[in-house]
Amino acid sequence: MVKKTNPSHISTTLAVPDVASIPKHLAIIMDGNGRWATKRFLPRVAGHSQGLNTVREIVKECGDLGVEYLTLFAFSSENWRRPAEEVGFLMKLFLTALEKEVSRLDKNNVRLRVVGDLTKFDQQIQERVVQAEEKTAHNTGLNLTIAANYGGRWDMLQAVSACLKANPNITPDGVTEALLTPHLSMSYAPEPDLFIRTGGEQRISNFLLWQLAYTELYFTDLLWPDFDVKALQASFAWYRERERRFGRTSAQVIDAEK
Ligand code: IPE
Ligand code: IPE
Ligand code: MG
């Protein structure tokens, strides 16, 4: 909800960004909660509760490792299709987390933001989101973003609408990245360097469609509640081995690093 474009965040398609050994921005699809619970003969929702413990651990570790932006996909725009009881449980869990976790995040210097179409949530959740964002707005440590009722297509469409409203004299040929991207819901962050999806599926499921253009994609069979610090470190080790060419040749990359 709080929005501000940071002009120092270069678009990967307009220029070649700086690359560090630790991802500056990590985006995660936290998948596999339901299967984790089913394997244990527990109701699926038990997996969501357990998944919140993993969130706590990974947020802490990312802060310690110097990740600047961590974005977690918590609820997609298509997750409303799930059984009403499961959706209801997830809403309750989201509300409780907003009530119980924010003080700890604040103490750890974490700045929290929530992206997605929040108008579909209960008034109470919407208010808590605003309060949590305001409470942590001054923090300078990890930038934690929760994507809730988020869809990559929704994001692009709302950005196009906002861009046209902000630039009423724009011509069809006048639409540029520079005019559009400030209206994407994560305009305050650089594009993700590393994407992790747990749970074994190798798909994007309508997550950050625009922003993942040059992101390194890492898939693990671990179910989200089983994903831990060791698994995070393994993904970072894999990331360090990638040659991020951004369209250039390998020789050019080596030359640019000299
Ligand atoms: C991810 O775990 C959490 C949400 C989508 C809210 P799932 O609930 O999708 O778990 P699986 O994929 O069914 O195991
Ligand atoms: C993606 O997981 C969304 C979240 C983790 C919030 P899903 O479980 O909803 O994705 P699909 O349906 O398997 O693609
Ligand atoms: Mg799933």
Task: Walk me through the topology.
Blueprint: E1 25-29, H1 33-39, H2 44-65, E2 69-76, H3 84-100, H4 102-107, E3 111-115, H5 123-136, E4 143-150, H6 152-166, H7 177-180, E5 194-197, E6 216-219, H8 229-240, H9 250-257
The chain binds 3-methylbut-3-enyl trihydrogen diphosphate (2 copies) and magnesium ion.
Residues 29-31, 73-76, 79, 201, 203, 205 line the site of one 3-methylbut-3-enyl trihydrogen diphosphate (IPE).
Describe what you observe in this structure.
With 258 residues, the protein is of the alpha/beta class. It is 41% helix and 13% strand. It has helices at residues 33-39, 44-65, 84-100, 102-107, 123-136, 152-166, 177-180, 229-240, 250-257; strands spanning 25-29, 69-76, 111-115, 143-150, 194-197, 216-219. It has a six-stranded parallel sheet with strand order 3-4-2-1-5-6, with helices on both faces. Helix 5 links the parallel strand 3 and strand 4. It is globular.
